[in-house]
Amino acid sequence: MADQIWIGIILITALVLFVIERWRYDFVAMGALFAAYIVGLIPRQEVFSGFGNPAVITVAAVLVISHALWRSGVVDKMASSVKQMGDRVWLQMIVLTSLTTFVSAFISNTGAMAIMIPVALQLSRNGAGHASLMLMPMAFGSLLGGTITMIGTPPNIIISDIRASHGAEPFGIFDFTPVGLVVAVAGLITMWLTAHWLVPRSKSRDTSSSPYDVSAYLTELYLPEEASLVGHTLFEFESKIKENFAVVALKRGKQTISAPPRYLRLRAEDVLIVEADAATLQEILDLTKFELNAEEKIDTRFLVSDEIKVIEGIVGHDSRLIGRSAADLRLRHRFGVNVLAVAREGQPLRPSLSDVRFKPGDVLLLQGDAEVLNDVFNRFGCFPLAQRSLRLGKKRQLILPIAIFAGAITMSALDFLSVPVAFTLAAGLMVIADVIPIRELYQYIEWPIIVLLAATIPLGGALERSGAADTIANLALWVSQDAPGMMAIGLLLVVTMLLSNVINNAAAAVLMAPIGISMAGTLEASQDPFLMAVALGAALPFLTPIGHQSNILVMGPGGYRFADYWRLGLPLSIVMSVVALIMISVTWPMYG
Predict the structure, then answer these.
(1) Is 285 inside any structural domain?
(2) Cα(337)–Cα(368) distance, rounded to whole angstroms?
(3) pLDDT (tens digit, 9 = 90+) per residue, 462-488?
(4) What does pTM read for this prediction?
């Protein structure tokens, strides 16, 4: 009994820390793992056993393959065809959500959304309709697509491995398809019929190319001969001003230099185009004796040139920007990149840009060299909203990556190779074939997810060994004792779905699977329908933006607020629960 109390305390504490997000989830999971070891719940030889677990290896391999397919432009070809659908918003939503769902069955949900969000925004900016109407259904569609195959989402891979660890064969690639495909189709139809009324509309991205009026903050400053900083470098000029501002261009005679380098020396009669609020502008004028040069309304043509671009990007769920401000980043000093604006929930944050602490889903407007911006987005965990402009000079291969990927699926489906071996081999072949450079092999693996899985898998074992899983299972069965047996599976499905809305879905699968297996053992029933319920519940967090990375990615571009998700998410969750329960009972009966 003491072991059950200890594991209960550790897991409840971890769940609370997951929800409040004071520390990142992989750090919390490792802390829970060490706590369980210290109190004797996990043997010494099993503390780090999760890092060698086949499920963890498979997830890492799938992430590498997903990036290789993203990099090759395979899915871009599919996405570009959406532009031929005309201006009917309803038809565009059907095509976008369907394509996102299909792609998400085979590559990571986040990767699918990174490809599809710019397509939706481009259609909206062309006057075709509301981006906000399409983005939330697309995010939910990416979650639905993950249920179709075993490699579609980490919970499915975890559940397959847990099945193997309990004396049965692991689930195959397409064992999830009969249930997942019907659930996905039902979810898509539900969204197509109800999104018009349930998805909140935001007009911030339908009237202009971005939610910021950058030109309202651009000012021309003329340098007379008596200006104190003539002959000094831009670095020296910028160092004198305490407030946050950006020199976005310099006009010298007939020449215009966008995002001028910091070593450039100022000359008399230069004109600087700066982005600053009124207070900062007054400080510049007082210190430098520059003069306002308000000839005409400045537009954004000065922001770009052949090399210099202005591109929006979303702050990802694991971005290194989270919790830091624009002043902290010093992107201008380190990379020659200007942070022009920040938008949150579709609204620009002004004027105290330097004090803004970035959050997941924020949209940044950055100016700089296109290749440097590519490096900045990769380095800091952001997703560009530009339409493929950041892949300059990268070789496209379409047939080879598809052939390698199809070969891995075929070999594992025919049971010639196990899933971990097949997909790890495919990831290696992608490198050998130069579909993905070897320097990028580990760059796009989501290491926090890998650490989270590796830490929670032993915790799931401890939950089972301590008897706590049996206790919780018996409690759940007692609650549903007078109901049909499938109601116990329904209860497990709903609880897992609710849990996945507040913690990482992979962790939800690891923690709920032992409870499902204990419920099956108590009822002397097959464990398969219970495992399927956990897999589906963990894969479909529709109620909150923090439930999944896909939900966070559309929050900023769609202009959604935290409370907007349940409007479509709640009815969709109800429909998905009913459809999933029916399909599980048909495909995976409890007995026989």
Answers:
(1) yes
(2) 5
(3) 888 888 888 888 887 787 666 667 888
(4) 0.79
